[in-house]
Amino acid sequence: MFARIRRAMTDPALVWYRLRAGIRPDGLHHRYQRLARAQGFGRAYLLLSFDCDTDLDIGVVEQVHERLHDIGITPVYAVPGELLERGAAVYRAIAATGAEFLNHGYREHTVFDRVSHAYVGTVFYDRLTPDAVVEDIRRGHDAIRGILGRTPTGFRAPHFGTYGRGSQLEHLHCVLAPLGYRFSTSSEPSLGLRLGPAPTLRSGLRELPVTGCYDQPFRVLDSWGFRFAPGRRVNQTDYTRQLGRLARHFSEAGRVGLVNLYADPSQVHDWPEFFEGLRPLAALAAPSFQYVLGEIDS
């Protein structure tokens, strides 16, 4: 929350876009369509990624993967290196199905409090030194290479919205570019509304922001915010309603862009409506971020 307030104070344009989103979101959706076409999108794509941030995910992620496969969706996975090591057998099995894995840093950055049933963040990049951020990225990179036998080309920073200022994204991309990365998907919906679904930053990498709610484009559409966030004013029904509106919008003839959704497996495995809500979007599903980048860059 405080990170977002600081960003608003130093970025007056962000305040203006938030006002537009609250008064007339349709205008921002039309702007987004124009930006998407300019960035090479010829149709709409769905990408669903999972942040596997706790040990709870290891026990349910294969079940979630199979259920989504049955409806035609292949998720992408972002797993911190420490958890990738602990769940190596499970994540190797998922990788063998062809699923894409993102570097999600090395250190475990979230814990689940079994007493309060709350997810608690423990490591935030905006609270680390620049050198510590670099080290965490490189160790996460090495973990994927060592455990999965593949070199990642996409990255996601921990905790959306806490490392998303322009200077922070530029620093992130400057670390990733020499390692051979093509993209990061570490930013909130506000960046997509302002710059489009796949803008190229100064380092030459693309940044792929996550998608917001249709009615509230600045609100991240995620499992934590709608099921587990303390003091939340939205619920599971609101989540599935927003999924439906996104599906109707992007399924219309001529719509282009990227429906970039994410969740945590442990937060959705017991939520049948989550899977049913994704069915209308399955026809738009892409197998990976790499695939989408190949399509728009061709």
CATH architecture: Alpha-Beta Barrel
Structure annotation, total helices: 14
β-strand amount: 5-15%
**Topology pattern, helix = H, strand = E:** HHHEHEHHEEEHEHEHEHHEHHH
Low-confidence stretches: none
Number of domains: 1
Strand line-up across the major sheet: 3-2-1-9
Supply the helix-strand structural class.
Answer: alpha/beta
Note the overall shape: globular
What proportion of the residues is helical, as a percent range? Answer: 40-55%
- CATH topology label: TIM Barrel
How far apart are the first and last residues' alpha carbons, in Å?
39 Å
Alpha carbon gyration radius: 18 Å
Question: Describe the biggest sheet?
Answer: 4 strands, parallel
Highest-level CATH class? Alpha Beta
Tell me the quaternary state. Answer: single chain
Mean pLDDT: 92
**DSSP summary, beta strand count:** 9
> CATH superfamily, called what?
Glycoside hydrolase/deacetylase
Keywords:
single chain; 298 residues; alpha/beta; 14 helices; 9 strands
Can you walk me through this structure?
The longest helix is centred in the middle third of the chain and has 19 residues, at 130-148. This protein is of the alpha/beta class. Helices cover 48% and strands 12% of the residues. Helix 2 (12-23) crosses helix 3, helix 4 packs parallel to helix 6 (88-95) and helix 7 (130-148) packs across helix 8. The chain has helices at 2-10, 12-23, 25-38, 55-70, 81-86, 88-95, 130-148, 166-176, 189-195, 223-227, 236-251, 265-268, 272-278, 289-297, and strands spanning 44-51, 76-79, 101-103, 110-113, 118-121, 154-155, 183-184, 206-207, 257-263. It is built from 14 helices and 9 strands. A 4-stranded parallel beta sheet has the order 3-2-1-9.
